[in-house]
Design goal:
Blueprint: H1 5-15, H2 20-35, H3 48-76, E1 84-88, H4 94-102, E2 108-113, H5 116-126, H6 132-135, E3 138-141, E4 153-159, H7 167-179, E5 181-190, H8 193-207, E6 212-215, E7 233-238, H9 241-247, E8 253-264, E9 266-267, E10 274-275, E11 280-282, E12 285-292, E13 295-302, H10 306-313, E14 339-340
Parallel strand pairs: 1-2, 1-4, 2-3, 4-5
Antiparallel strand pairs: 5-8, 6-8, 7-8, 9-14, 10-12, 11-12, 12-13
Helix pairs in contact: 1-5, 2-3, 2-9, 3-4, 7-8
Length: 342
């Protein structure tokens, strides 16, 4: 995945203000703090150099994760055409950039962010954006561990935010966002055991309040993943030349691992299952690990079933399964996703 061209150009302009050496030092420190167990005691970004480092090395990964999660939402709710978006803990507006790329129906966005320097960076990035919703977005300075005003929006988002809050504040934020959600609510966290635990807690809490799971789960039952395992996905994002220099990396890409849940009051298309690991392609057969409405399942497609084998070879981690795991029959698309359930 590559960032939109207008975002790439805007980033290059903003990042020209910092030296590669200073950005690299800030990026290394930021990475250490980002991967440390969450304490809920404050922000990860502490200085202007941190913000520039975030733009260089974390914005592309956050965009990729948000875009991948929202793409799953779009696939399960094909009639969902949000006009308004609320992003709590918006950073430089990364999730809005991802949403605008997928939902051209967006007309207005409210972005809540506590750091004035980050808001300023977000406004600079959006100034030359091709999507009007990015240029016209309303930015509000808000602390998410405190009460804030959140009128109804079609799409609400909190990406890589819960880990900066204590558990009580996490619950309060999720509840506020859910009350403000008229369409879909998206939560994204790092693809670590701790990040998944935060996602799972909010999924369980909000299902008890009447939410329905849109993605990634193909059901509203308790998560079947237990023990030391955790549910996460990965999205490959291209690195710019500056990104590689700042990270001291040789590869032209990186894989961002993330956990997420999308919840709604709308009814999604039925889903036979989702691929929850990289499919293992072997000589003449493909092993696929799935989460299905029946629980965790593993299936093998062999060359004896040519159609199923062909479909299996094209599957990627996170894809919906193109067949019913129990029946082995191809899944035919059905209309009606995104309509209110009686």
């Amino acid at each position: 995945m590559q960032l939109p061209q207008d975002l790439q150009e805007a980033l290059a302009g903003v990042l020209s203000q910092g030296s590669v050496k200073a950005l690299r030092a800030a990026a290394e420190d930021l990475s250490r703090r980002y991967r440390a167990p969450a304490s809920g005691k404050g922000p990860l970004l502490r200085a202007r150099e941190d913000i520039l480092a975030y733009l260089a090395v974390r914005l592309p990964a956050t965009f990729a994760a948000s875009h991948a999660a929202l793409a799953q939402v779009k696939a399960q709710l094909p009639h969902f055409t949000p006009r308004t978006l609320l992003d709590a803990g918006a950073g430089p507006g990364t999730a809005l950039w991802a949403a605008a790329a997928l939902f051209p129906s967006l007309e207005a966005a409210t972005l809540l962010e506590r750091d004035r320097e980050m808001i300023a960076a977000g406004r600079r990035l959006a100034a030359g954006a091709s999507a009007p919703v990015l240029r016209a977005a309303a930015w509000d300075e808000a602390h998410l561990d405190q009460a804030f005003s959140a009128p109804p929006h079609d799409l609400t988002v909190a990406a890589y935010v819960l880990g900066e809050l204590g558990q009580g504040a996490q619950d309060a934020l999720a509840d506020r966002l859910w009350r403000a959600t008229e369409g879909v609510m998206l939560l994204v966290e790092p693809g670590t055991p701790q990040g998944f635990a935060r996602i799972l807690r909010q999924r369980d809490r909000l299902l008890a309040q009447g939410a329905r799971t849109i993605a990634p789960c193909p059901h509203d039952d308790a998560c079947p993943i237990i023990g030391s395992d955790w549910c996460h996905f990965a999205e490959r994002v291209s690195r710019s030349a500056l990104h590689r220099r700042v990270k001291g990396a040789d590869l032209g890409y990186e894989d961002e691992k993330f956990s997420f849940v999308a919840l709604s009051r709308l009814a999604p298309l039925p889903l036979a299952g989702r691929v929850i690991r990289h499919p293992q392609v072997r000589g003449g057969h493909v092993h696929v690990a799935l989460c299905t409405p029946r629980g965790l399942e593993s299936t093998v497609a062999t060359r004896k079933d040519k159609d199923r084998y062909r479909l299996a070879k094209d599957l990627r981690w996170g894809d919906p399964t193109p067949w019913d795991a129990a029946e082995g029959a191809p899944v035919r698309p059905r209309d009606g996703g995104g309509k209110e359930q009686p």
